[in-house]
Amino acid sequence: MPLPLDAPLPGSSFTELLTGLGQAPTWDVPPGAERMLQAPEGTTVLALRYAGGVVMAGDRQATEGTTVAHRRIQKVFPADRYSAVAIAGTAGLAIEMVRLFQVELEHYEKIEGIRLSLEGKANFLARLVRGQLPMVFQGLIVVPLFAGYDEHEERGRLYTFDIVGGRYEERDYGSTGSGSRLAKSYLRTAFRPDLDPSAALRVALGALVAAADEDVATGGPDLRRGILPSVYAVDADGVREVPEDLVREAAEAALEEVR
């Protein structure tokens, strides 16, 4: 759509452009409205480094109170060519945040002619999380997980966040969501610095199965229904979804090992 004559010049931030046009998304919820909301919530996502990259995985279940709202929700998304983002918390808001984040990275690259650095992407995602702080006080929380391949340092890196937009780089692995403590307990014992991609996939699936075994909100692999975790890998070749047959094989091994 054409810009008004008095509109600000487009900068490298898509959000700032929307703000100048009066079209910025708002996250406010009237006091007391949260009692009427029954929003599905995403649960456990995790990421871990391997030699040359990082793998990110998430279960497929969303809960609504004590019931299952969705069994096949997508929680892991490519952010751009060299990074991926996963979501936990209020599902609708989280997916909307991911879409805005994807547009921001694409907009920056088109305007500046270069990709934003991996740390710059993590910083911008932290700003988006901080921007939904009013929703936190209404009980609608979004906590993402971000990972990617650093083209300058030639290694995988991953970042966790808190509900007020704090950004923390994790050394080897990270997790967020209702089953994150259980997943990290598994990762703490199973992670090795020399993991190759296939071994990292098995460890990631093992952590999800371990979390699902104790956390009722986390949905583990459901082989009978054909419901498998979402898994993405990021390395020097870019971000790619791990093929379903490899995920199934790792899931079967994880179910056998953990349970």
CATH topology: Glutamine Phosphoribosylpyrophosphate, subunit 1, domain 1
Instruction: Tally the helices.
Output: 7
Structure summary, number of beta strands = 13
Low-confidence stretches: none
What is the first-to-last residue Cα distance?
55 Å
Give a structural overview.
The protein has 259 residues and is an alpha+beta fold. It has one domain (41-258): Aminohydrolase, N-terminal nucleophile (Ntn) domain (Glutamine Phosphoribosylpyrophosphate, subunit 1, domain 1), CATH 3.60.20.10. Helix content is 35%, strand content 26%. It contains seven helices and 13 strands. The strands form two sheets. Strands 1, 4, 5, 6, 7, 8, 9 and 10 form an eight-stranded antiparallel sheet that branches. A hairpin with a 5-residue loop joins β9 and β10. The chain starts with 13 loop residues before the first helix and ends with a helix. The model has no long low-confidence stretch (mean pLDDT 87).
